[in-house]
Amino acid sequence: MFEGFEETQVDVGEASIFVRFGGEGPPVVLLHGHPRTSATWHRVAPQLVAAGHTVVCPDLRGYGRSRGPGFTADHEGYSKRAVADDVVAVMRHLGHRRFALAGHDRGGSVALRLVLDHPDAVSRVAFLDCLPLTEHLSRITVEFATQWWHWFFFAQPGIPERVITADPDSWYHGEPEVMGQENYDEWRQATRDPDVVRAMLEDYRAGLTVDRGHEEADRAAGTRVTCPALVLWSLKDDLEDLYGDPLAIWQRWATDVRGYGIDSGHHVAEQAPDALAYALADFLRPAPAG
Questions:
Q1: Strands 99-104 and 257-262
Q2: Beta partners for residue 261, in sequence order
Q3: 3-class DSSP state of 234
Q4: CA 249, CA 47: separation in Å to the nearest integer?
Q5: 106-117 vs 80-93: helix axis angle to the nearest 10?
Q6: Strands (DSSP E) along the chain, which ranges?
Q7: Per-residue confidence band for 290, with pLDDT thresholds at 50, 70 and 90
Q8: Catalytic residue among 59, 85, 86, 105
Q9: 286 pLDDT higher than 90
């Protein structure tokens, strides 16, 4: 995986972030979702390098080979704000103060927080298979609670850690023939680590508490995404079925939005990498003069 890429561990203060990076040209950061690692991008990242980009793929704080601070009752250490700050620090460490950004699933929540907190750092942003957390929570239905019950299970104190770490291979499902063997092996090693499992749960606990509060404050203040935004969703996932047109929801948060559905299941970087890489490269291509 990631032939020609470099790997490093970046100390950002209270966290240590594992990152892969390669290529030359305008930088773009790819943020994975739950329960994946940066390896999920192994079929997309090389195509963006070939399209003329520097591509940076970090493991989110606490996921994969990244490590975060100790766990606290307020979950602040694993808030999207803290993780977004990690990404900015990593990019500055690599010499980039402005970059494009794409986030999938929980990585999409980090991408939203980053572009709202650091608007001068982001040139363009892509949100993949995600909505703002508060948009999910304001639309809770029986269907949502049935299909996304894990959000609320993960929020329980102590219980999910005991359940998941008792048999992580049964809890987390993945297919090496779909994911790619090396990606699968890296992901499986991470999901067997109790510290990683706890950090991933803290991500969800923060989502229902401190992250929700941050988004509600943004809505009250009228804060919006002002850079160009691309929204992509998987047609074989349930986002559109649950909420209708994702673009209509994102237009409440961003001034310049475009996007469409991709014929894929939820883990689009693994299941439809060519279509995703094409969409991202096209979105990141500079507009013609005039």
A1: unpaired
A2: 233
A3: strand
A4: 30
A5: 70
A6: 6-11, 16-22, 27-31, 54-58, 99-104, 122-128, 229-234, 257-262
A7: very low
A8: 105
A9: no
> Has 105 been annotated as catalytic?
yes
At 178-234, the pLDDT tens digits run 999 999 999 999 999 999 999 999 999 999 999 999 999 999 999 999 999 999 999
pLDDT at 280: 98
- Output the six-digit token pair for 69: 């601070």
Q: At what angle do helices 80-93 and 210-221 cross, to 10 degrees?
A: 80
Please compute, for residue 53, the number of CA atoms within 13 A of its CA located in the half-sphere on the CB side: 26
Reported as a pLDDT band with limits 50, 70 and 90, residue 147 is: confident
Q: Per-residue DSSP letters for 145-210?
A: HHHSTHHHHHTSSSHHHHHHHHSHHHHS---HHHH-HHHHHHHHHHHT-HHHHHHHHHHHHHHHTH
User: For residue 283, how many C-alpha atoms fall within 13 Å in the half-sphere facing its CB?
Assistant: 26
Total-model pTM: 0.96
Cα–Cα distance measured from residue 78 to residue 72, given in angstroms and rounded to the nearest whole number = 9
Active site annotation includes 245: no
What helix, strand, coil percent values describe the chain, rounded to 5? 50, 20, 35
Token pair for 121 = 């750092």
Q: Position 63: which residue type? A: Y
The predicted structure's pLDDT at residue 144: 87
**Closest to 262 measured CA to CA, from 246, 276, 248:** 276
